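Q: What does the assembly look like in three dimensions?
Context provided by user:
Components: three
Sequences:
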Amino acid sequence: MNQPVIINNQERKETTTLNLGPTHPATHGVFQNVLEMDGERIVSGVSTIGYIHRAFEKISEHRPFYQITPLTDRMNYCSSPINNMGWHMTVEKMLGVVTPKRVDYMRVIIMELARISDHLICNGILGVDAGAYSGFLYLMEKREHIYEIYEEICGARLTTNIGRIGGFERDFNDIAWAKIKKFVKEYPPVLKEFEELFTRNRIFIDRTAGVGAVDAETALNYSWTGPILRACGVDYDVRVNEPYSSYEDFDFDIPVGTTGDVYDRYMVRNEEMYQSIRIIEQALEKLEKEEKGVFHADVPEIYLPPKEEVYNNMEALIYHFKIVMGEIDTPKTEVYHCVEGANGELGFYLVNDGGRAPYRLHFRRPSFINYQMYAPMSRGMLLSDAIINMSSLNVIAGELDA
Amino acid sequence: MSDIKLAEAPAGIEGSGFFATSFDKVVGLARANSLWPLPFATSCCGIEFMATMGAHYDLARFGSERPSFSPRQADMLLVMGTIAKKMTPVLRQVYLQMAEPRWVIAVGACATSGGIFDTYSVLQGIDEVIPVDVYVPGCPPRPEAILNGVLKLQDLVRNEPMRRRNLPEYKELLNKYGIQ
Amino acid sequence: MGKISNQAVLEKLSAKFGSKISLSSEPHGLLTFEAGREDILEILRFLKEDKELNFNFLTDITGIHYPEKELPIGVIYHLHSFRNNVRVRIKVFLEDANPSIPSATPLWEGANWMERETYDFFGVNFEGHPDLRRILNVDDMTVFPMRKEYPLEDPNRVDKKDFFFGR
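A: Here is the predicted structure of the complete assembly.
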């Protein structure tokens, strides 16, 4: 590959080929980029993906609807509750199930916590890549607290599998509520401290401002969504455009950037975390007015009955059997449902033929679609800038490869 | 009084000004308490490993302070997450690049057995391509489980005979995987 | 709901393309119709560039396989008009032997990987695509795994033999 590059009959400096990945520590996942380098500057690059392709879509064609939830966990594992809820809502949309307001608000709390945990990891790692480790340590501690809330609700930390089609498997217990309230109170000061470390830090600004700047038109052309699109100045957010799970009841702002560079993405994510806290506070307030103890829709034909009833009640036993065996009646239809995932529009395109498993399920994975611009946009960048650019795209390998 | 805890000395004969024990045990002790991990993180379990490395669980307590991202300087390969067939040659390459003595921990259901992904694109357990010393179950395992796996490996390392890597049995094991 | 109704979108399309658009429906409020492979690029261009409709955003391209149908391989486009907040779904069905369809990359750069993924899974040949290679699967794979005739599990594996379970 190290052939001299000849342009206009003149020999240019030699370029070298650099293989970055798939297990490079700076890439936070299994991405491979074969870069052609002119010194420190990238001339061109080719991305190779698929290093953890697990055939989610093929598996989905063989699993009953409720068994697909654990698969969605493993897609974007930094914010798995959003994926879980997105999938539950897709099936509910298909079946025409309307969930009570209390369930919606509980879902909103969980989803916003997930958004915080995803954004804080992204921004923390961004600091690590810029050479500042302390911010990461500040935030990681708080992520543990979010995980503790998940643990209280569903028992798992990371791949949560929270909820069921039709609601939650159980009501949040008192400890969970107390932990959520505590987190809402404690998180903003920590985030403020984190911001003080970075936002006006000369070195951080020098490393990030102007790096990877993208204009809105290019971003839309590449089908970008999520915080990185908003950093380009497009105020597209699924939570507002097509409200799901009663997001229309909440009052929150959508932060947008202007230049679409790494610094703007960082600022947008930070502000979104404050907005998420705001949403959770409102949800907690609204939940005070809702009837206690409601945690699922009244749909016995798709929502598993409590175990005691299964043993003592014929009807419940039949429903239990039908649900577990995947024999519920489903309409022949197709549905597209999307939620605002931490990285952008997370879509579920479900084609159902009335069988026990989806006929076809396609995930619109924001990381996959956002990442394809990475190689074109790193052209002309310094290698160190390309690294920081990658971490600000927040590409999650599991979501990228599905 | 400092609160630094020293590793316990192996059994031996102690007298004034000397301490005699077998060389095996000393080397085992040194190796076990300074395992340099190479995190080969591909998916969800990698995120739990980040938590394990973080301040809360602190893997560094067990002598694994320095994650070595270069296989040449690593002792303990931690394979975390799904290994797809596309990734298999890379994993094997990394293992081959490690210097002896080397140990492997398969963290999580996917690395151990393919986990829930029984599909055409996923390797059904890394022990199809490289030998594994410790398996950690869980999907993903909790940080405590990963720590337990490391402790189990430390036991293995501590008690490993000096000559193990030169024995014909070990050669045979590697040959089974096509490693010379 | 959006500023422009599904009905208005459909009327506008019918006025322009007439019978080239067929089988329209609205499952769960999302306008869906079928089109032929010859017209698809024209339709996409019209939807994107029409001032009123302004479907500027390509949400997704994916495929589907109905083995028992006459035209078994489907390519499905999801478009989104940010200004009107309306979505539209377009399906194109292709023959089995050598499915090919014009690429949408001249209209949206973002179609590049979506089409590569569809090629990888279903073997749809996108004409005019700049770099149509496998994207997720290994390069030397010979089958298109999302087609219904291919099994989920690896057919070559040996560890599920009855012998291992004492049967």
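Follow-up: The beta strands of chain C are 21-25, 31-35, 57-65, 73-81, 86-94, 100-102, 125-127.
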